[in-house]
Write a structure and sequence with these properties.
Layout: H1 19-35, E1 63-64, E2 70-71, H2 72-82, E3 127-130, H3 133-143, E4 156-159, H4 161-170, E5 179-180, H5 189-198, E6 203-204, E7 210-211, H6 213-223
Antiparallel strand pairs: 1-2, 3-4, 3-5, 6-7
Pfam family, one: DUF2237
InterPro entries: DUF2237
Length: 226
C-alpha cells in the first residue's frame, strides 16, 4: 500500500511592507551607522532622509542610547523641551555660523556651516568649538571618533553633545583645550543635556564610553551665562 504524501505547506502570500516598516528600516540603518562611529563626522548619503521643503514642526528626534542605538523615549523628551523654537545661540541671540573664513572644511550636520538643530541628527551636533590636538587625539583613542581628516587644531567644528561631555569628563578644568564658542553653539544644547540629566541617562560615544550630561551642562553654563 502506497504511503500517503505529506500535505504541501500552505502558500504564503508575499508580504507588503508599509510606510511604518520602511521607516523602521531607515531607523535601523541610522542606528547602525551611528554605532559605527559616524555621529561627529557624517552619515553616508544613502542613510540620510530627504530634506523637508518647508520649515515646520520638527519631526521626532532619535537620541543616542546604549552603544549608539536610538533611544526614542529620550528623543521625545528632547523634542518636547524644544517645542517649535527657532535656532538661537547660548545667549539667546541669533545663531552664528561655526565655520569661519580660514577653515578648510564646512561643518554642521548638513554642512551648512552652522550647528543648527536637525531632526535627523543622532549625535546632536550642537557644540561649536575651536579644535585642539589634545581633544582630537583623545576622541580618536577613547571614543573611536577620529575627526583629524576633516578638522585640525585651531579649526572650528560642530561636535556632538556627547563629545563635549567627554572632554569635560576627561579634563574638567581646560576641556582638553577645546574653546567653546557661545555665540555659535546652539542654545538647544541645554535642552539635550537637561533631558539626559533628568532621565538619569548617560551619554554614549561610538566606543561605548559613557559621560555625564549634568557635568557637561554645568561647564556650558559656567562659560556661557546670558
Amino acid at each position: 500500500m502506497a504511503s500517503e504524501l505529506p500535505a504541501s505547506p500552505p502558500t504564503k502570500s508575499p508580504r507588503v511592507f508599509g510606510r511604518s516598516a520602511v521607516r523602521g528600516v531607515r531607523v535601523l540603518l541610522l542606528g547602525v551607522a551611528a554605532w559605527q562611529g559616524l555621529e561627529c563626522f557624517q552619515l553616508p548619503r544613502w542613510s540620510q532622509p530627504l530634506r523637508a521643503t518647508s520649515v515646520a514642526r520638527p519631526r521626532p528626534l532619535l537620541a543616542m542610547g546604549r552603544r549608539g542605538s536610538p533611544n526614542l523615549q529620550t528623543a521625545r523628551r528632547v523634542k518636547a523641551s524644544r517645542g517649535e523654537l527657532q535656532d538661537v545661540n547660548l545667549f539667546g541671540g541669533p545663531l552664528q555660523s561655526c565655520t569661519q573664513g580660514a577653515d578648510g572644511q564646512v561643518t554642521g550636520w548638513t554642512r551648512t556651516g552652522s550647528c543648527a538643530w536637525e531632526p535627523s541628527d543622532l549625535g546632536f551636533h550642537q557644540v561649536c568649538v575651536t579644535m585642539s590636538d589634545t581633544f582630537l587625539a583623545s576622541s580618536a583613542r577613547y571614543d573611536k571618533n577620529d575627526l583629524r581628516s576633516v578638522v585640525q587644531s585651531g579649526g572650528h567644528w560642530c561636535i556632538c553633545a556627547w563629545a563635549w561631555a567627554a572632554a569635560v569628563s576627561r579634563d574638567p578644568k581646560t576641556f582638553e583645550g577645546l574653546q567653546l564658542d557661545c555665540d555659535r553653539t546652539n542654545g538647544h544644547l541645554r535642552d539635550v543635556y537637561h533631558t539626559y540629566a533628568e532621565a538619569n541617562e548617560m551619554m554614549t560615544s561610538p566606543s561605548g564610553a559613557k559621560y555625564e550630561a549634568q557635568k557637561a551642562l554645568a561647564a556650558v553654563d559656567a562659560l556661557c551665562r546670558s
